[in-house]
Amino acid sequence: MNLLLIDDDAELAGMLAEYLRGEGFAVTTLHDGASGVEAALSGRYALVVLDVMMPGMNGIEALGRIRLHSRLPVLMLTAKGDDLDRILGLELGADDYVPKPCTPRELAARVRAILRRTQGAPEADATLAVGPLVLHPHKRTVSWEGRPLDLTSTEFNLLEILARQAGQVVGKGELSEAALGRPLARFDRSIDVHMSSIRQKLGARPDGESWIQTVRGRGYLFVKE
């Protein structure tokens, strides 16, 4: 599995890449946003690990350029405690984030979790249809009201989980475990940000309400007609 690691800290990037190679990944390291974007769009990689804090084109700008052309999974490396960068990255389509400093083992675990969700496929393409939503798990494609719906890999996972349990409340903890591959941490807003993005892409119901409703203190519910 080919990974692309973009971080201007050459020493840190080298250490992380060495560990990931020992875990069975092929890793290419680059140290600036511009060349990183070009490589990410080459089609050679299964996932990008992208640092936010880089001179010149920073990670947020690089992510925005990648998302203009590709749904390639992106894992952001953010400064510890910098909620603004995390939320902005998620809103622009990052699949998840790891706060720095991080251990190589944690990074490898997060990478595997994303790849399991994006590369693994069910044995059969059992189409899932709920109202105007038609979802193909095997192809990882979605149509909404007869038109293709452009989702990130994490957004796809969240929408699939909600659609399979349409009409039922799904807790944030369950969504985090299934869609992000990690327990829900206190004050973690990742699920909320992803849900906000999905809602915008679905639009409102005829009655003006959202297709995905927040059930306070419990989780989210996909409205089943």
What are the SSEs and their pairings?
Elements: E1 2-6, H1 10-22, E2 26-30, H2 33-40, E3 47-51, H3 59-69, E4 74-79, H4 83-91, E5 96-100, H5 104-119, E6 128-130, E7 133-136, E8 141-144, E9 147-148, H6 153-164, E10 169-171, H7 172-180, H8 190-202, E11 212-215, E12 219-222
Task: Describe the model.
The chain has 225 residues and is of the alpha/beta class. Helix content is 40%, strand content 22%. It has helices at residues 10-22, 33-40, 59-69, 83-91, 104-119, 153-164, 172-180, 190-202, and strands at 2-6, 26-30, 47-51, 74-79, 96-100, 128-130, 133-136, 141-144, 147-148, 169-171, 212-215, 219-222. The strands form three sheets. It has a five-stranded parallel beta sheet with strand order 2-1-3-4-5, sandwiched between helices. Helix 1 (10-22) crosses helix 5 (104-119), helix 2 (33-40) runs parallel beside helix 3 (59-69) and helix 6 packs across helix 7. The chain is globular and about 55 Å long. It starts with a strand and ends with a strand.
Main attributes of the structure:
alpha/beta; four-stranded antiparallel sheet; 225 residues; 8 helices
Give the structure's gist in a few sentences:
By secondary structure, this protein is α/β, with parallel strands linked by helices. The protein contains eight helices and twelve strands.
